[in-house]
Design goal:
- By secondary structure, this protein is mainly alpha-helical.
- It has 2 domains: about 70 residues, Winged helix-like DNA-binding domain superfamily/Winged helix DNA-binding domain (Arc Repressor Mutant, subunit A); about 150 residues, GntR ligand-binding domain-like (Four Helix Bundle (Hemerythrin (Met), subunit A)), CATH 1.20.120.530.
- It is about 70% helix and about 5% strand.
- Helix 5 packs antiparallel against helix 8 and helix 7 crosses helix 9.
- It is elongated, with a radius of gyration of 19 Å.
- About 30% of the residues are buried.
- About 5% of the residues have low confidence.
Length: about 230
């Protein structure tokens, strides 16, 4: 169970919000894996909060689909089902490819410069803190997020971009599992370089094809693992 600093000095509404945020981050990052039982006593000890704010935080996570309430048995991290993953990947491809086409059509010189800078910074960050096994690097994760946001940033459709952001966040816990399975064999850096090049060349067909492949590869790694676990 991840260790957390005590939050017990905060007022109850703030404490429940803080606990919710920490738990949410731990679920999305994969530190709390799909299906893990969320035992109230252990959580209270690790996150430094009492039962009431902890239950409130867990109920909010359940409403968001990140936790599941078990009848008379508390909560667990939402399971990762192959069908959910496939639907999420398909939704991301449809939404982000549409946004990328519009971004390529509308993007100006400032957008090109921002994308070049985002890709450069991503290429300079180490994907893993350990070269032999995957250990998430917060710097790489931040650069990765900025790169994907930069790709779409010239799309002048805020509701579509908000939808893309929500899907990206939902996919984060699956991506965390994929990183562990795919590292170090998958050359993610080369995928990003090719995607940036096609986008900057204004080759919309190639760019959206590469973006779709990028997400589908992620889905393939974790999907095979989920299918194997279900068999």
């Amino acid at each position: 169970m991840p260790q957390a600093h005590s939050l017990s000095d905060a007022p109850h509404p703030t404490l429940a919000t803080a606990v919710h945020r920490r738990l949410r981050e731990d679920i999305l990052s994969g530190r709390l894996p799909p299906g893990q039982k969320l035992k109230l006593r252990d959580l209270a000890q690790n996150y430094g909060a009492g039962a009431s704010p902890m239950r409130e935080a867990l109920s909010r996570l359940a409403a968001e689909g990140l936790a599941e309430q078990l009848e008379h048995r508390g909560f667990r991290v939402a399971t990762a089902a192959p069908g959910q993953l496939h639907g999420l990947i398909r939704s991301r491809v449809l939404a982000e490819c549409a946004a990328l086409r519009e971004s390529i059509r509308r993007g100006d010189a400032a957008w090109e410069e921002a994308l070049l800078l985002a890709e450069h910074r991503l290429s300079r960050a180490a994907r893993s803190l350990d070269p032999h096994r995957f250990v998430s690097n917060p710097e790489w994760e931040a650069c990765h997020l900025r790169f994907h946001q930069a790709l779409l940033s010239a799309c002048d459709a805020p509701p579509l971009l908000s939808f893309c952001d929500r899907l990206r966040e939902e996919a984060q816990r699956y991506r965390a599992l994929s990183n562990i399975l795919a590292y170090p064999g998958r050359d993610v850096a080369a995928e990003h370089v090719a995607l940036a090049r096609a986008t900057l060349d204004r080759d919309a067909e190639q760019a959206v094809a590469l973006l779709a492949q990028h997400y589908e590869r992620t889905g393939a790694f974790i999907g095979a693992d989920l299918d194997g676990g279900a068999g």
